[in-house]
Input
Amino acid sequence: MEVLRYAAFTDDPRGGNPAGVVLDAGDLDDARMLAVAADLGYSETAFLTPRGGDRFGVRYFSPLAEVPFCGHATIATGVAWAERHGAGEMLLDTASGEVRVRTARAAESTSATLTSVPPRVVGLDDADFARLLAALRWSRDDLDGALPPRVAYAGAWHPVLAVATRARLADLDYDFASLQGLMAERDWTTVQLVHRTGGTTFDVRNPFPPGGIVEDPATGAAAAALGGYLRELGAVTLPATLHLRQGDDLGRPSRITVDVPAEPGTGISVTGTAVTIS
Output
């Protein structure tokens, strides 16, 4: 078994979000996959099982548990496969459904684009909203009234909270145990915290206590969910290309491109590069 190490959503191994990738995990059971992910210590590790042609099974494990879908590890997996087998298209059977990945190689980089399962957006329960704000140590006055709180899905569930100022987003000091408990109860994967810096540009941060990680430097699944959220609310002119900045507050800059089609219910596309970590 070879465990590959990639940084996703960056062209610099010192940036982006590190992910483990195992390109042939057919002989591994759940306990072994969890042990590999825990030993590696990255927020997620992807375990790929080739099924013939361009179809693959894939599972994702954080150091603490399996997660249904992970965007940055999918980008890393697509790049790792393309670098060894050539660019093209992959069909991934995830726990959340089929995810299409398209890879492209250039002179100095390899990129991957995933297209999510159909997104969904639901309301955020008032009691959960209050608990979420308390765990974040935020108040309602910190929020951007133009982007109301919701819970969004594009393979995994993420509460979306928009803050009015970049300073509030930068000052993230949350109650880890309280947020971890709430997210476990609601089966939320990360919390998508966003500040709108332009019509289609956002700075984002993603607490990830369910994975034992204080914060994710780049979160492709939450980026796709944000695309579905903005389309559902009519908050962008469609079709839209979003540009997300993440990881800067952690010293691991990450850049995520999100394409939001106009057609309701269609998957959201997330694009990024990935590079090996030595």
Notes: The longest strand covers residues 97-105. The chain is about 25% helix and 35% strand. The radius of gyration is 17 Å.
